[in-house]
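Newbie here. four chains, one complex. Structure please?
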Amino acid sequence: MAKISGLLYSHSANIIHADQHLDRDEGLFFMRLEWSLENFDMAAFERAFAELARGLKLRWRMQLSARRMKVAMMVSRYQHCLADLLHRQQTGELHCDIPLILSNHRDAEKLAAFHGIPFYAIPVTQENRAQAEAEQIRLIGEHACDLIVLARYMQVLSPGFVARFPQRIINVHHSFLPAFTGARPYHAAFSRGVKIIGATSHYVTDVLDEGPIIDQDVMRVSHRDQTENLIEKGRDLERMVLSRAVKWHTEGRILCYGNKTVIFD
Amino acid sequence: MAKISGLLYSHSANIIHADQHLDRDEGLFFMRLEWSLENFDMAAFERAFAELARGLKLRWRMQLSARRMKVAMMVSRYQHCLADLLHRQQTGELHCDIPLILSNHRDAEKLAAFHGIPFYAIPVTQENRAQAEAEQIRLIGEHACDLIVLARYMQVLSPGFVARFPQRIINVHHSFLPAFTGARPYHAAFSRGVKIIGATSHYVTDVLDEGPIIDQDVMRVSHRDQTENLIEKGRDLERMVLSRAVKWHTEGRILCYGNKTVIFD
Amino acid sequence: MAKISGLLYSHSANIIHADQHLDRDEGLFFMRLEWSLENFDMAAFERAFAELARGLKLRWRMQLSARRMKVAMMVSRYQHCLADLLHRQQTGELHCDIPLILSNHRDAEKLAAFHGIPFYAIPVTQENRAQAEAEQIRLIGEHACDLIVLARYMQVLSPGFVARFPQRIINVHHSFLPAFTGARPYHAAFSRGVKIIGATSHYVTDVLDEGPIIDQDVMRVSHRDQTENLIEKGRDLERMVLSRAVKWHTEGRILCYGNKTVIFD
Amino acid sequence: MAKISGLLYSHSANIIHADQHLDRDEGLFFMRLEWSLENFDMAAFERAFAELARGLKLRWRMQLSARRMKVAMMVSRYQHCLADLLHRQQTGELHCDIPLILSNHRDAEKLAAFHGIPFYAIPVTQENRAQAEAEQIRLIGEHACDLIVLARYMQVLSPGFVARFPQRIINVHHSFLPAFTGARPYHAAFSRGVKIIGATSHYVTDVLDEGPIIDQDVMRVSHRDQTENLIEKGRDLERMVLSRAVKWHTEGRILCYGNKTVIFD
């Protein structure tokens, strides 16, 4: 901390945001620094910092706020998360570009058109999965996407797909993980008689619903709520946890370690 | 509903609280009625109602608000829930009597004495479990308890014990069920990296942590929270979900069906 | 209660939802009953009920679930609430028709077109207010609207306008009322240093921000949140409290009395 | 930041917790650092730091975690906050000593005795206020208290009293400030028909209920809740916001500036 902040100081950086986290059990130190580039010699700093980082054996990344991430959306039939993300992107709440929307259905085509975003419908079946994924990966690559958001995309991605984008695929699961993993979590919640429902956004790993949790939110329900009420109320939770996850990721506020996330808000 | 409210009307009952619930999938109708006994001929009503209930094949119970339930407390070493319940009982928030406190340790003895409640320390080991439970059951019976509250009692009760008190044992589990059943849920929550922790009060059945849920509450946590912080924050949740469950039970606001509860609040 | 449920029973009504509320201080009894019209002789029931209601001096209303309310939307520049309501209406979450959108700006025109809803831009100034309101009222009447929703409409309606639509105008105020009434509540919240922000949906009366509260929601904030963060976070609250209010109103779940609401959920 | 962390590094400090906050509008930078004293030459560091702080014109304070603050409790008749704080202190959740309890009533005497804490009942009337406060101040001084906690102390302290303990008196107000300042906030909340109630802990300044907010919490209520239900539910909120405020203060996690707090959690 001393050395890095000292280096920034010596390069006259004007720090905007600084946050740290110390995991003493693991012996890890995390730091996020955000500074203005006004009158700042980036090239000189990068050279000096690279040397420092080598000496301290840091794992680090540098990200330009001005550079907008490119985000690929994947969606199936339910459009509430997608509509919400597109609206937030349009109003500037999400600082990113959305160069394409991929779907295994055509339902979202009109919504995509309204926002002027290229839409690709690629049906996925048991038989053509490998081929469909190859096509998806090609399109994502063609548009140079930094992040893939599964906005209620109801197909399980293959391990090969997931491995290509480590910590770059965000999913929303419609339960309070680790409760109710797998299919139809609202039905399971209703059947268990819970008094609170939830939703979870997380990075996708090769174990279903087990990736690092980014955000969770919950809502109180009662015996009056039938499964369809849980589904409806849950949509608000899904929208919020997914949009916050995308926002934090695109702003470089998430650090992953082990199977956890540090959120520098 | 028509016939019961009609009967009450014909007996000049002054209704204080009325609530219903309809589970259309199960074809069940639930009703809770609370009325004043001023100028009310209870004996006559009871005769008429019993006949009506037979005709309609109702499952019902009648409870006098003036009669305070007797509640046995069981506790191990952590006293935060017990101290909280005793305080609420003392201030009149809980309308019940607490004739005895049972523990497998002596830690809570002073607290019991402060509140003037008989305290019985009955150590429980692998070997003497049957004998210890027999002694507990004897004491609970001797004090004619209507309800048993496990206020962080860390021993698993035998199926025989549980079977004796159906829907009359309330436990608090220190997680958001069904997530993190079993031992050390805060450690499991920390290790999974959840962003929200919870606590659950429920009726005890013979399957551990699977009984009908009465109440749940949650609190946001972050990467800054170590396991000990989760434990500390969770204590507030445990106090609240357990005290609400005891309050609702003693006020006759809980109806169980299947593995669920209807809470008439 | 006995007489009404008895009457329904004698007409073989199949009750779907029943809820009551008793305000003992005010000596008021509220009841909401929902029943199926299958094999139900509505005309006969209406005659019998009208007579009963006269005898009991009830204030009552009857509403057909099958009849969709017509809702006029009014909006200024911020479109997050409008976009949210239109999406919910489109997916069937809101059971209503939206025959027109009124605005004092043109910003929402494209959004209206996407949803195929007639859009009227009527600029409002200090000078033309009376004339503008007359035009708004004419259009609302022409489309036979049952409800007017101010989805972040930033003009204060005149007492004359409000008086025409008692308990039929719903507004969202971007604070936790009664804190921070009036203009720029997020700025006021920031300046006061609150740790939680809120939003409120309420019926509009002739006293600004003083009408009966329908719903409120809140979110935790911290010293890290600047005014612009409060504004952004608050948008999620505004969407939720407004959409819930519209949903409950269109489903006939709200009863007003005094300056309060009973919500039969 | 660079210089301070550099100084700590050069003294081989082992940092345990580091947090910063930047208020760009006000041009203020806040930092909290916590480090271990193992193999740390405190005297040498203090000399070097004092010099550095002078040069940088820092406002700073240094606090030894090992030194337990002394906290005076003031209470009137309602004991729920006091009982809660004493329990938390006893179990080690609050790292402080409580050398005395002051009250204008005798109700809490038994509770004080149970915890072995000297109890002083000093009646306060319109006439003897000055004298009573003088006695309170004498006792607080005699026990060298660092902090005064108003655990539902229902007398307004004089400006002279308050001025003696700047940012060293913590109060709990039983509403979601700035809503419902002054007396009987639950009655006011009931009468306004709010759907959420709250509680607020704050530092006491000479303007009633206007001091810097430390923590707030809220709970959903409904039309079913009468004033007495709000009072009862609110007690849980009061306990939580007050105990968190005391915990944070005694751990040195609160920085005040303007009329706000920074909470380094």
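Moderator note: The interface with chain D takes residues 1-3, 5-6, 8-10, 15-20, 22, 24, 220 of chain A (CB under 8 Å). Helices of chain A lie at 2-10, 42-56, 80-90, 109-114, 129-142, 159-164, 185-192, 227-250. Thread marked as resolved.
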